[in-house]
Amino acid sequence: MALIKNPFDHDLTPADAPLVHVQLDGQWVEVPRGLNVIEVARRFGKLIPHYCYHPKLSIAGNCRMCLFEMGTPKLGPDRKPILDAEGRPVLQWMPRPQIACATTAFEGIGIRTNSPLVESCQEGVLEFLLLNHPLDCPICDQAGECKLQEYAFDYGKGRSRFGEEKVKKPKRVDIGPRILLDDERCILCTRCIRFARELAGEDCLGITERGGYNRLSVYPDKRFTSNYSLNTADICPVGALTTKDFRFRMRVWFLKETESICVDCATGCNVTVGSREGIVYRLTPRVNEAVNSHWMCDQGRLGFHPIHSKHRVLEPGRRADGRLFPGEWPLLLRQVAEALRKLDPSSLALLVSARMTNEELFLVRQLRDLLQGDGEIFTEVVPRKGKADGLLRSDDLNPNSRGARILGIGTDGERLPELRKGIEEGKIRALFCLHEDAAGAGVPEALLSGLVLLVWQGILADRSSEIAHWVLPGASFAEKNGTMVNRAGRLQRIQQAIPTPGRAKEDIRILRGLILALGGEDFGQSGPEVFAKMAARIPAFQGLSWVGVGNQGVTLPGEVQ
Predict the structure, then answer these.
(1) What is the DSSP string of 382-395?
(2) Residue limits of the 4Fe-4S His(Cys)3-ligated-type domain (predicted)?
(3) pLDDT one-digit tens code per residue, 217-257
(4) What residues make up the domain containing 363?
């Protein structure tokens, strides 16, 4: 896939653009020259309604919803602006409204966003948009997030004068593997067309027919297969484009929204987790210009499904005589701690996941230091490599590889062959798998079955959990609080959206229980508590606080890539 536009370029005007004086609804303000009128109004808390405009896409100027009344400086006989008593230009107002998306600020421009002319234009545009639009909001999947619905209420007439038969257009058109089109709801804003062409690099959508019969369509013999196709459902202002995964599954006003990050690769796209009653229904991109702008890939967006997999491990237990017997957490943690305590440190290995949070990795480090004493415990992470796409998708599929390196956990998989060799030679006789499958990392099950101790902590059953002596079910990214460091060295927070299912337990609490059972220090039982202890001891995090990280994250000093 050829990606042809930088999604992070959010500078709507050059950084060195000079400031100009603009009259906005009677008040003179200063804004950068060249900033479009929609953004001028936005900077001062005013909304100019619009459909086709999007700050990351080219200007189309076809919906006409953003019409405003425009004034220009009145010129005297000397062709210079006439000034009033305060030294401001006297404005003359154009009789014809202009579109705000394609009009940029210049010295002395006048802008009226709520005059009688503007209000009349908004009512007229909405009336035309609704002529052939089906009035079926109660059954539309976009209800609650529909800009046509909102603007019709805020700016429309409240009634229609159209009494003719509406033009019927195709419904439930399958235009791609993950997205559906309801043409009858499309208002021809062309946002999806421009996104596919300019950002996804997949020119496959266009407008066909003429006049009132215009409709959106995919090109003949083509499908919208881009790994970014679902972003068009986000930017569609109506219910024309919907995702197959979320369509008709839940009304959006029932969803609890939690700000978090995607953990499907090292980019760490900012997301909003939509959940209800312990179930995650969707992930949508959250704007962060330093990370992912307005977008995220489809792969990451759909990466939450393992949370509710039928293979989720929900009961902690101990295996005896080939059977796993459920047990109580305090007893099991004491038993695991006692078994670990009896080991020679050189015979124990930790296989750790770079999908764990910094706080969890910090506790793994404390557990390792507590167990190894003057010896050394073999510790390694499992790398996950994919293919970078030049936009957002990283070739590192672990979301916290950089955090693991900062905390001194593993060497990106370089020593994995040593792990297998150590088990084969009998030097490593015990293994603690933390959200990793040792069999999947290259250690044959026959070797794992011969270990004197195999402890497994994770969320989905795998070949290691099936033969582990102790099984400790942990939490997914949506079930805990913590931080991760993305590929660019930016520290970001994940936040708990749902509780852990069954008798699974947050990993911080599991690790805390083991450390306390071994007589170690209490580092706290929540992400913010452990973060404070970690920031006091790890140089890369010193001076930072949980609150200070915020919902947009911070770049760690010395970690910029």
Answers:
(1) ---B----SSS--S
(2) 117-156
(3) 999 999 999 999 999 999 999 999 999 999 999 999 999 99
(4) 317-476+503-542
